[in-house]
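Person: Show me a sequence?

Helper:
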Amino acid sequence: MSATTDPARETAAVFAGARLADHYRRVYQAMRDLPICNPSLDIEAIGFRSYGDHAIGVILTPWFMNLTVCAAGAEELPLRPLGETAHWSLPAGRVSFIVGRLDGFGRIDSCSLFSPMNDFADHAAARAVAVAALDELFDPGSADRREAAGRSPAGLDRRSLIFGARRGAANVAP
C-alpha cells in the first residue's frame, strides 16, 4: 500500500464497517437476551480503513470483538472455503483470520480479539481496547520493536496482539 490515502477508498472502507455494524444490529435483536451478551456494550464499527482494495477494522458487539477484513467496494473478497484460515500481512506482522460469509454482505475474514465480552465494564473500556489493538497492528515500528526484543517477526495471532507472544504463519490472504 502506498503512504498516501485515497479518499474514495477510505470512504468505502468506513461504509463497509457501517454495513457490518448494521448487520450485527439486526442479529442482536435475536441475541440480546442471551447470557453471552454484555448489556453494557453497543455495536460499533471501529477504525475501519482501507487496506489495499479491502477494508479492515474492529467490529465491537455485546458478544464479541473481532478484527475484520472485508471488501471495501462493490467487488467481494475472492472466494475461499468457509472456516479456512487466511493470513493477512499487517504492519505489525501476519495475523490469522477465519474465513466466513454473511448473507447480503459476502466474505468476511475475522480474527477474534475477545469473546465473550463479559469482562468489559462499559462500552468506553471495550472501545479503548479496540482502538489500542488497531494502533498496535498498524504501527510499522511494532514489528521492529518485537524483533529487537528477540521475538520472531513471524505471524501475530490474537494472543500475540493481546499478550505479546508471536508464532509462525503459512499462507497469506486473500
